[in-house]
Amino acid sequence: MGTNVWNGAGRRIHMQEVGTRDGLQVEPCFVPTGDKIALVNALSRAGLAKIEVTAFVSPQAIPALRDAEQVLREIERAPGVVYSALVPNVRGAERAIDARADELNLVMSASESHNLANLRMTRAQSFQALSAVSAIARQAGTAVNVSLSCSFGCPMEGDVPQDTVWDWCARYVEALGARGVTLCDTTGMAYPGQVAALVRGFKRRWPDTELTLHFHNTRGMGLANVLAAIDAGADRFDASLGGLGGCPYAPGATGNVCSEEIVHALQLMGYDTGVDLEQLLEAAHRLPALVGHAVPSQLVAAGRRLDLHPLPADFDAIRERALARG
Amino acid sequence: MGTNVWNGAGRRIHMQEVGTRDGLQVEPCFVPTGDKIALVNALSRAGLAKIEVTAFVSPQAIPALRDAEQVLREIERAPGVVYSALVPNVRGAERAIDARADELNLVMSASESHNLANLRMTRAQSFQALSAVSAIARQAGTAVNVSLSCSFGCPMEGDVPQDTVWDWCARYVEALGARGVTLCDTTGMAYPGQVAALVRGFKRRWPDTELTLHFHNTRGMGLANVLAAIDAGADRFDASLGGLGGCPYAPGATGNVCSEEIVHALQLMGYDTGVDLEQLLEAAHRLPALVGHAVPSQLVAAGRRLDLHPLPADFDAIRERALARG
Hints:
Two copies of one chain form a homodimer.
Chain A: E1 14-17, H1 19-23, H2 33-46, E2 50-55, H3 68-74, E3 82-86, H4 90-98, E4 103-109, H5 112-119, H6 123-140, E5 143-149, H7 162-175, E6 180-184, H8 192-205, E7 210-214, H9 222-231, E8 236-239, H10 259-268, H11 277-291, H12 298-302, H13 315-324
Parallel strand pairs in A: 1-2, 1-8, 2-3, 3-4, 4-5, 5-6, 6-7, 7-8
Helix pairs in contact in A: 2-3, 2-11, 4-6, 8-9, 10-11
């Protein structure tokens, strides 16, 4: 009976950090450039497989990431770690390539309504713009990953048909030759059965394409979705240090799944995440001071499973009184 | 490849509400008796399988539940719902039986340190006291459930050996004839691989004993643990409306898994929880007014997966401008 997903048996899972981009971009305060660089360096040392360092967007649109060039140029690059940057257009791609991004992350939505509301373009227009970005990346020899928002549902339209997801994946993988695709659960609508089906479908069609799953914990299903994805063959996940990154459609709700929570859980199950949890947690504990508020991470609040608590100060007296009662 | 735990296929899962006891007992304010009764009645109507209504403890020790008799006497009892009450001793058992509890819930810890720190008795003393309670319940024809705290680890001792858990289960099931056992993850130390092993071990030894799993979401593994338990053969879970109920060893951390989050997830996966999620959510939305603060429930914050959001007010203009760009 049952599966072996609960027992990782040393299987490799690649953890990708998105907090420095997806998390910091929604913070109202500007995190100083030196602190951002120190944070990325700490994440590199902790053993993350990929770090989405920043976004090359308009500084007017997202002032929190207006130091993208400097951050990407000045981080210490650890061997084996992929340093990715989000780029929305040709100008952003040129800037990111110039600052030596290992990978450009391109974003559009599987939902027409969400793409229009969020990016002010139709999906067809997004594809056209990102085709141009892709051409520039190819010329520069820089890898491309495509993040498909709302792959598990749209907060305005509801369910997104699987065939719609496949259509857009096919264009990027087959027509543009993207190295990787990220199926994004942008507003936490994914659930395990759906995740397993989508991962199996993707792996069947594009077995050689790097597949990432990007879950939000908006409705408490983040870790369960990660496990359903692993059970269906996925081995690469986005997560955000401290659980940084909100959800604009659910004020007060949790956003991205939390890096240290996912690593903690996967390590207990025997997966090889390549991550030094202690270093990751140290970085997470420094986050509240950086962003000026508490972070959603439950591991920051509660500690690891075996971070034990002392006995009560009067424990010996309690025991003596108990034993005296016979 | 993979399991079918992600696809419930109509399998029955029994959901048991503990918020009215485990949640309310730690609230600093006293929830008026009439409101407690209305809450239990709403939970009955929503289709919970069992409700831990209250605790018959010393009113000095837990003033929040000083109205235990009145609540248990005055609730409307729905056919098929089991109304349970926590009792720590003979006096509590007599009061609970007198107020027509369907089931007495007896608590001790699998960890000696936790039992002493929490109950001021050795485990042997607890067993002796609960044996007397059990005898009274048998005389009265009232069912007994035993909740074994720290079955998945102790916040002071660390791992609790499986054999220790089996020893105490054996005493209650085989020596005292308890109808049910709840393995409690009192401080959120359980993880899926461990859960699957413990559930399989219990079902093998005591296939006819009602087994409940009581998880906390302290480290974000609550739903994953529920699914690992289901995969290993469990079908009965405690949960708390709104996620009420803290964790004294992790201030700020989440306590009990949240009833509406678990029901929402299990229903999406095709399990039959017997619960009307809409009614459950209505009750959860009334909780903040009852307890005077926000509740941890992410479903209260974010709504159900398909509770859609309106398009932006200027959506038509956005689309027209986009299309005008060609």
